[in-house]
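Quick question, first post here. What does this chain look like in 3D?
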Amino acid sequence: MKNNKGLSTVVTTLIIVLLVLAAIGIIWGPIKSLLSNSASSLDKTKCFNLDIGITKAKLANATTSNSSYLITMKRSDTLSDVEEAGAKLIFYNDTASSKTIDFNDKNGGKMFTSPSVFTKEIDGNITDATKIEVMPYYVDESTGKKQVCSAAVPFNL
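> Answer (accepted):
Ran it through. Tokens below.
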């Protein structure tokens, strides 16, 4: 008869290695998710120093169906590491709100560099607006997608 005692240590070692690999695979899933969420949260800190707002807004042309507003916007931050930024606008009156309008799309695609000022006539698609909300955004360098900052800046007309 052959002596099979050495075979059991090889099988035991192989089982331990497989269990360790399985444990690493199970633990890696939540760790990867946590790390990617942290990276996107760190990316959102770009909004902290981003200062884009309306300096002047007035009714440019009103009809019964919609209203046009002459809007002057300014980017005045100097500490932000965002080279180019944009702004989305929402117009409000006493009873309704407009759809989100991208100021930079209406401005020939020109983005705000710091410091810069743009004046543009925008159709707010709403009559008798009393307030405009400005939501700054930046373009994520790695994905090329617009990242809208969560804090909206109100401007009362």
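The longest strand covers residues 52-62.
The chain has two helices and eight strands.
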